[in-house]
Specification:
- The protein is an all-alpha fold and 143 residues long.
- It is built from six helices and two strands, in the order βααααβαα.
- A two-stranded parallel sheet has the order 1-2.
- The longest helix has 20 residues.
- The chain starts with a strand and ends in an 11-residue tail after the last helix.
């Protein structure tokens, strides 16, 4: 799975970082929320000048893109709940196999999960938009 545009690098790097947190959860019993909180606290002390949906060429590989991307993934997990989140991620990976992806692909599958689970899609949209399209750091996921 590859990216359709470079400005969507948060998809690759956010999932890569989140996968590390998931491994820590699996291997050492440290829930991903603890890793997320640690990195959230670091991001909160840094400049809030990054737009995750389009960080630009100078910030594209900034660690804030990677960690905010992972926090976005964690926020999706909080909105969807574990079962729907992991099912959605499996669908996302399967649908993107041997092709390129864009955020809309993930968004559409999350909206589908909301419909299946009876989750208010407006709640999902607020989380999605606050993490991707606003510079200021949203509240910690699940708080």
């Amino acid at each position: 799975m590859g990216l359709a545009q470079w400005n969507d690098i948060w998809l690759n790097e956010g999932f890569a970082c989140y996968a590390e947190w998931l491994w820590r959860e699996h291997a050492h019993g440290v829930h991903a929320a603890i890793s997320a909180r640690h990195h959230y606290d670091i991001l909160a002390r840094l400049p809030q000048d990054l737009l995750l949906s389009d960080p630009g060429p100078h910030l594209m590989f900034d660690d804030r893109v990677y960690k905010r991307g992972a926090l976005t993934v964690h926020a999706l997990r909080c909105v969807l709940g574990d079962a729907a989140f992991f099912r959605t991620i499996q669908r996302y990976v399967a649908a993107g196999r041997h092709s390129v992806v864009e955020p809309i692909d993930l968004r559409n599958l999350c909206e589908q999960a909301c419909a299946e689970e009876g989750i208010d899609v407006a709640c999902f949209h607020e989380v999605w938009n606050s993490w991707l399209y606003r510079r200021e750091l949203p509240a910690f996921p699940g708080s």
